[in-house]
Every structure is written in structure tokens, then in C-alpha cells.
Amino acid sequence: MAEINAAIIGGSGFYEPGILADFREETVTTPYGAAVLTLGKVDRMAVAFLPRHGRNHSLLPHQLNYRANLWALRELGIKRVIATAAVGSINQRFTPGSLVIVDQFIDFTKQRPLTFFESGETNRAHIDLTEPYCPELRHSLKAAAAKLGLAVFDGGCYVCTEGPRYETAAEVRAFKILGGDVVGMTAVPEVVLARELGICYANVSIVTNWAAGISPHALTHAEVVEVMRNNQEKLRLLIKEGLLGMAQETGCRCCGR
Ligand code: HPA
Q1: What separation in Å is there between the alpha carbon of 165 and the centre of ligand 1?
Q2: How far is the CA of 152 from the centre of ligand 1 (A)?
Q3: Ligand 1 site-directed mutation target among 159, 166, 225, most atoms within 8 Å of CB
Q4: Peptide bond just before 132 cis, omega within 30 deg
Q5: How far apart are CA 256 and CA 43, in angstroms?
Q6: pLDDT (tens digit per residue) in 113-163
Q7: What is the DSSP pairing of strand 80-89 with strand 200-210?
Q8: What's the pTM value of the predicted model, to 2 decimals?
């Protein structure tokens, strides 16, 4: 098969590649453990698909082996990743069903391995994350949405919690004051690890619910999966178009240029 050009990391409710043709499963062994991926094609582009929580959603956000996943993508020579994530909304403009191409995050995780750097590599370890999401990949997703006539929000701040519980109403009020727009449990450290490896990374967040205290009812995972299911087709179309519209050469600084 041709060089793998890009990868999709599917979040909650996005467990099957859907848009991949001629696909096969592959296990990649890394120093951090194994990662199971599906390798296939989107038109003539070689694409890997990684369901973040496993096919049956057997892994919770705090149990995910983010390092094995990202390392495996690098082993496959992948330079660009489009990730999806289900999120609760803190921003009144982002109603359930909205797609948000996030551009910032605030990290409230507590106990996850956050980095590939473990010893005194000071110069390399302090990476710049002023702009954590790749501007070029974000641009291809926005252009893809325009082409498809799909509404997307350009930019939003993803607050990442440790989970697996949902938030308290007070936490959500605090996140709003801090500038958060959506809340989820998986953005970090995935985006950080991608940047440490010089991989361009974008995140399309799908609003599945109003966040705790804004929602008129108690939050459930069933609600999240149901809204994801109803929106998965437009998400697939967006990602496919976004992948096909990517520029051949990157001019961004994600790879540390
Ligand atoms: N909070 C955290 N994670 C989530 C939510 C939420 O409201 N919705 C979907 N994932």
C-alpha cells in the first residue's frame, strides 16, 4: 500500500471508519504498548483510522493509551491527524448537533502521562503550544465545510477534564468564566503528544449536550451516543472532504520548523 498520508482518530460514537475502502486491521507495537488501527483508502489517499475508545467503547478517557496511539501513528509515517470528540457545550451559540473546529484548550486533566519526554531533554521538552491545533488542517476542514454547505464554528476553547464522571454545575460555571466553550475528556494529552511528535493535528468537536447545570436534565452517555449517531454522517463527509482538500506540502510550524 502507498505511504499512509493521514489518520482519523474517532471519538465517542465514531467507532467504524465508514469512509475507508480496501481496509484491513493492523496492530502496531510501540514502546508504550500496542495500538490497533484500521488502514485503508480515501480515494487514492492512504488513511489510518483509530477508534480512540476501542471498537466497543471499552476504554474510558483516563484509561486510554494516548502515547501508544500517537507513537503508532508516527511509526506509520503519518503527518496529519483529524480527531473527533463528543463534547458538552458551555457556549450558548454552540447548540447540540453543532460542529466546532476548536482552536484552543484548557487542561484540567490530573493523572495521565502527558508527554514523551521523561528525562533532561529541556530544550526539546518545552514545546510551544501557543496555537495547539494545526492552522492548515483547520483551514482544510473549514473549506470542506463550506464546499459541503455544512455549518461549522471556526474556533472554540475545549476544556479537558479528567472524567470519567461528568462535571458539576459549579465547574461548568468556572470553565465559562475561564473562557471555555466546550467540555470533554479526551483532547489532552492527544493534541500535546501530536505536537511533540511534529504531527499536524486538528479536532472537530461535536456538541452532544448542554454541559452540566446548563442542561435541563441529568447527563447520560446514552444521550451522547445518540446525538453522535445522528450526526455521524455529516462528520464523515466533512472529514473525507477535509482530508482530500489538504495541501500536499505543509507550511505550518507544527513539525517544529
Ligand atoms: N462533559 C464531558 N465530556 C463530554 C460531555 C460533557 O458534557 N459531553 C460529551 N462528552
Answers
A1: 9
A2: 19
A3: 166
A4: no
A5: 30
A6: 999 998 877 678 899 999 999 999 999 999 999 999 999 999 999 999 999
A7: parallel
A8: 0.95
